[in-house]
């Protein structure tokens, strides 16, 4: 279990039997034993490498600073200037390998990160370039907004150049002075840049990969370009000219100067505005004219009209305007044979006939007739539901869950989820029957929901095929699976993505589907082939969402690089991209084509909806009334309205008919984004605590909304660290798959530890999840206790992994060392970046190995000694460079209290796992046997209810004494260390709960509102910064 804790200021739990003096003395002795143990382990660890390194003695954590001063012999201390001169010699003679070894040894032995001191001439060079450029931009009044675009790329490249030359202090000073003048569109990027403080971090950063290989696009008018050209000529600075030529792509346009609003609405991409040359290709946005579509539509419309009215036959039925068109080809539509489409089957004709019947009976929507909304809230889905999809006929619902399963549910009681009959029964059916399709299913197999199991990671994308025969899913495990809904089994597992798959979508005609993921690619697949048909790799960050065009000829993708790209599926050219759009200021979560195919809507984390006319590549609407990230967009079937929803728990409906009419009647597109958006918003509805993850218009224009219930307390704490929400994890462009694995491992196994890690200091956030994931891996070894050999195998595995980690660091191997286990990979980076000792990790493994050998603790002292071997706070203190005896003592006490509370809480929840941890003397004292708990049943334990209460009382009393001891040290604890000790809040809440119900573990109300109370206290502690 995790032992990250804090020291609350609320009163302690009162118990009748307490002896603080005795417990304090006892725990001082325990802590002294711990110090001796860790000292001995550290000595053994360093004895193995004495032959290769200078002999040194490793002291406890809070003596390390004194030890570092003794490592260099007297008279050989080197200051920063001396070290800088040595490094300059290495650089002068291009001795890169020697320089790298020298740096590593300095950092390894003395914790020194060298920053070279540039000459006054070099310092003036950087400041002169940027200061003169900023003054020039400020002096151009009318052109200021356009010319300010050049400041950001120059700022980025100058900073990276300083870091690359080891001018760390100069880079930090430069950042402090100029970061505030950068455009707000790159605020997130500028914050990330601050975290880069050495060469290694720069080499691994997305800035080096993105800006080092691709030019930043700057769009300027003729007038602005002339001013910039004159300034560069007057400055006569070759370095400035080289910076602009090598790192910027200047796009010059003819026409009037753009104002700030016009420039801002199309900017925001990771590499600036989209280049206009990328949007010149013709797009066939019209809908396909299928064979016999016109005659079939006319026939079905007449049938539907006959069914829908009882008026005299002499009066002509009024048919739908959309179906009353001549059977002719749309000039903007592609040929039906432009891409291979599946043949129309008889069952498809039946489904289409029913769809058209529903379509002609649809409700006419508009400002005067708003849609009816049916909203489904998914209960008991605490951090479980990641994605949602509805079938085309609105009868089935698919949920992608964090437990690696796909859940299929029916929304129509008459349409149960049935499986096919057996092979023998199918052979006996009358093949000529008109109702052969329905006869194929077993009537007795109908259920309300079914679970599809096969993925090995959370599901982030699900999509039904149009005929409802298949569903496709994408997972964190990097695979895409195709499931058959006739047998509810997996047909194919598609492999190709190198990382989590964020979204999947079926095409409008079935057969084709697409996927996208963290590997920055989008892939197109077919149900009859196991390899991808198309691969698109133009994005610079995670591809978060995608959508097929209604005519199935194009695929649109949205990314964390804040761009939207449209690809021609039929193109065989080297560049298959036909559109690139920028305008969003944060990651894009959802994109959707209109029913007519001409418009594309997008929504993202910037709470903005943008609508493009893909025929002209112009933004025709910029809607900003949502207050949080947008996750769902849907156009009505007749294209008259569209709906939006997201994390602000709001559904909004917009007047698409008015927007379409204005666009078709006007040639001045700039007015669409300047007018008040209330002209388009025709309705807004608020849910209570349900984010809107999916919106769906039925064939009759009923709007269906779906989302998981989310507690307000969880919502507040997640907002303090957005990356850890289930939705934000999905949208984190910089998220590493190994880091995500560790995060999910902690979240799924110890949710209280996951929540307390949200308030961990930013600089050790990644190490915190790495060490806690490692702790989870070690803690789960031997829990079943069925076969000790299994536990031993896992112990040996992790010992080998830790040996490999530190041997790689010892042998000065580069950062490219790869581990098959994601936790081991994160431990490697953690140990290397923070100079950690192998002894810390060996304590975890040795503690578990000793436990497996003895299988039961004799008394509480042995139990607490084992609990302290899994205390992660000692390592995190080391990462923060905190060397304080009181911090160590507080972590020791709270770690033990957490472990005791965990055991007490799970005695009846996980008896087969907890029984081996309970001390033998307490079980004997309270007359409870291991067999009673291992074969847990209420019938057996009900007579021993009082015995269980006494056992729980003893465990809680000891836990409470540890909390009291830790609280007495609160005034002596380093302020920076207090957030790491936030776990004691959960202990306090649990102990109060136990006292309230007289330590009765069988009380049904024991677990009620525990999480809500814990979250409330944790939020208060975070807000007040008072732990």
UniProtKB/TrEMBL annotation:
WD repeats: 452-483, 494-535, 536-577, 581-622, 623-656
Ranges of compositional bias, category Basic and acidic residues: 319-329
Family, per entry: Belongs to the WD repeat TAF5 family.
GO molecular function annotation: RNA polymerase II general transcription initiation factor activity
Acidic residues bias spans: 294-307
Gene3D superfamilies in the record: Farnesyl Diphosphate Synthase (1.10.600.10), TFIID subunit TAF5, NTD2 domain (1.25.40.500), YVTN repeat-like/Quinoprotein amine dehydrogenase (2.130.10.10)
Cellular localisation: Nucleus
Signal peptide range in chain numbering: none
Keyword terms of this UniProt record: Nucleus, Repeat, Transcription, Transcription regulation, WD repeat
The organism's place on the tree of life at top rank: Eukaryota
Domain TFIID subunit TAF5 NTD2 residue range list: 122-247
GO terms of biological process kind: transcription initiation at RNA polymerase II promoter
Protein name: TFIID subunit TAF5 NTD2 domain-containing protein
SMART domains linked: WD40
One GO cellular component term noted in the UniProt record for this chain: transcription factor TFIID complex
Pfam families in alphabetical order: SQS_PSY, TFIID_NTD2, WD40
Keyword Repeat listed: yes
Region (Disordered): 41-74, 294-336
Major subcellular location class: nucleus
């Amino acid at each position: 279990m995790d032992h990250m804790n804090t020291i609350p200021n609320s009163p302690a739990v009162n118990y009748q039997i307490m002896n603080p003096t005795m417990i304090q003395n006892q725990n001082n002795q325990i802590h002294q034993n711990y110090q001796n143990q860790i000292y001995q382990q550290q000595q053994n660890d360093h004895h193995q490498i004495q032959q290769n390194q200078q002999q040194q003695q490793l002291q406890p954590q809070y003596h390390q600073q004194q030890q570092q001063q003794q490592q260099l012999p007297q008279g050989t201390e080197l200051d920063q200037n001396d070290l800088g001169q040595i490094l300059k010699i290495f650089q002068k003679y291009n001795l890169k390998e020697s320089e790298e070894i020298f740096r590593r040894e300095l950092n390894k032995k003395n914790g020194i990160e060298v920053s070279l001191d540039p000459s006054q001439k070099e310092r003036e060079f950087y400041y002169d370039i940027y200061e003169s450029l900023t003054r020039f931009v400020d002096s151009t009044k009318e052109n200021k907004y356009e010319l300010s675009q050049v400041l950001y790329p120059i700022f980025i490249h100058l900073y990276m150049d300083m870091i690359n030359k080891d001018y760390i202090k100069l880079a930090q000073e430069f950042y402090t002075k100029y970061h505030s003048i950068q455009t707000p569109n790159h605020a997130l990027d500028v914050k990330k840049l601050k975290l880069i403080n050495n060469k290694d971090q720069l080499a691994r950063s997305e800035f080096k990969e993105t800006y080092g290989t691709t030019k930043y696009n700057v769009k300027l008018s003729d007038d602005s370009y002339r001013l910039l050209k004159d300034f560069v000529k007057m400055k006569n600075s070759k370095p400035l000219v080289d910076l602009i030529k090598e790192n910027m792509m200047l796009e010059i346009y003819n026409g009037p100067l753009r104002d700030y609003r016009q420039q801002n609405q199309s900017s925001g991409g990771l590499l600036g505005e989209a280049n206009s040359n990328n949007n010149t290709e013709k797009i066939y946005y019209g809908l396909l004219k299928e064979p016999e579509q016109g005659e079939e539509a006319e026939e079905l419309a007449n049938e539907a009209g006959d069914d829908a009215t009882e008026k005299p036959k002499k009066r002509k039925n009024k048919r739908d305007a959309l179906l009353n068109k001549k059977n002719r080809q749309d000039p903007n539509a592609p040929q039906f044979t432009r891409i291979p489409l599946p043949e129309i089957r008889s069952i498809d004709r039946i489904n289409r006939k029913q769809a058209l019947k529903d379509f002609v009976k649809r409700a006419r929507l508009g400002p005067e007739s708003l849609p009816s909304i049916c909203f489904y809230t998914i209960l008991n889905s605490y951090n479980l539901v990641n994605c949602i999809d509805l079938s085309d006929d609105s009868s089935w619902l698919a949920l992608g869950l964090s437990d690696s399963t796909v859940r299929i549910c029916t929304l129509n009681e008459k349409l149960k989820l049935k499986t096919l009959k057996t092979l023998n029964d199918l052979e006996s059916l009358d093949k000529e029957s008109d109702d052969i399709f329905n006869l194929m299913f077993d009537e007795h197999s109908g259920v309300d929901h079914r679970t599809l199991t096969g993925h090995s990671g959370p599901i982030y994308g699900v999509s039904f095929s149009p005929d409802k025969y298949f569903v496709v899913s994408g997972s964190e495990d990097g695979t895409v699976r195709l499931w058959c809904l006739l047998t509810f089994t997996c047909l194919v597992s598609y492999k190709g993505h190198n990382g989590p798959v964020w979204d999947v979508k079926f095409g409008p005609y079935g057969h084709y589907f697409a996927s996208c993921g963290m590997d920055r690619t989008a892939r197109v697949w077919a149900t009859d082939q196991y390899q991808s048909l198309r691969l698109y790799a133009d994005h610079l960050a995670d591809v978060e969402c995608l959508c097929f065009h209604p005519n199935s000829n194009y695929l649109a993708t949205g990314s964390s690089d804040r761009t939207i790209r449209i690809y021609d599926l039929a193109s065989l050219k080297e560049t298959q991209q036909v559109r690139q759009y920028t305008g969003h200021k944060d990651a894009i979560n959802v994109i959707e084509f209109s029913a007519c195919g001409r418009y594309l809507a997008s929504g993202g984390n910037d709470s903005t909806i943008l609508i493009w006319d893909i025929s002209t590549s112009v933004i025709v609407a910029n809607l900003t009334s949502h207050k949080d990230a947008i996750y769902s967009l849907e156009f009505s079937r007749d294209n008259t309205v569209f709906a939006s929803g997201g994390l602000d728990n709001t559904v909004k409906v917009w007047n698409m008919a008015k927007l379409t009419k204005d666009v078709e009647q006007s040639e001045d597109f700039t007015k669409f984004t300047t007018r008040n958006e209330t002209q388009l918003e025709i309705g807004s509805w608020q849910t209570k605590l349900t984010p809107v993850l999916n919106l769906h218009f039925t064939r009759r224009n009923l709007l269906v909304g779906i989302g998981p219930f989310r507690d307000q307390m969880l919502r507040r704490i997640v907002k303090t660290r957005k990356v850890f929400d289930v939705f934000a994890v999905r949208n984190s462009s910089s998220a590493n798959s190994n880091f995500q694995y560790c995060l999910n491992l902690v979240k799924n196994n110890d949710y209280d530890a996951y929540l307390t890690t949200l308030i961990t200091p930013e600089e050790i956030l990644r190490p915190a999840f790495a060490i806690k994931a490692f702790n989870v891996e070690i803690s789960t070894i031997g829990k079943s206790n069925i076969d000790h050999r299994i536990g031993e195998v896992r112990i040996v595995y992790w010992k080998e992994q830790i040996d490999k980690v530190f041997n790689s660091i010892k042998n000065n191997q580069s950062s490219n060392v790869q581990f098959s286990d994601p936790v081991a990979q994160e431990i490697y980076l953690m140990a290397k970046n923070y100079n950690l000792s192998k002894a810390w990790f060996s304590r975890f493994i040795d503690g578990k190995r000793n436990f497996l050998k003895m299988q039961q603790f004799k008394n509480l002292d042995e139990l607490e000694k084992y609990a302290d071997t899994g205390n992660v706070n000692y390592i995190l203190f080391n990462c923060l460079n905190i060397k304080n005896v009181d911090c160590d003592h507080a972590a020791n006490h709270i770690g033990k209290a957490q472990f005791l509370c965990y055991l007490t809480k799970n005695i009846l929840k996980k008896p087969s796992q907890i029984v081996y941890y309970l001390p033998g003397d307490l079980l004997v004292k309270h007359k409870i046997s291991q067999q009673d708990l291992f074969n847990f049943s209420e019938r057996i334990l009900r007579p021993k209810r009082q015995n269980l209460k006494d056992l729980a009382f003893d465990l809680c009393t000891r836990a409470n004494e540890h909390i009291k001891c830790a609280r007495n040290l609160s005034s002596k604890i380093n302020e920076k260390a207090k957030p790491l000790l936030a776990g004691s809040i959960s202990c306090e809440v649990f102990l109060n709960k136990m006292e309230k119900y007289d330590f009765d573990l069988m009380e049904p109300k024991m677990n009620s509102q525990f999480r809500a109370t814990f979250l409330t206290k944790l939020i208060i502690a975070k807000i007040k910064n008072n732990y």
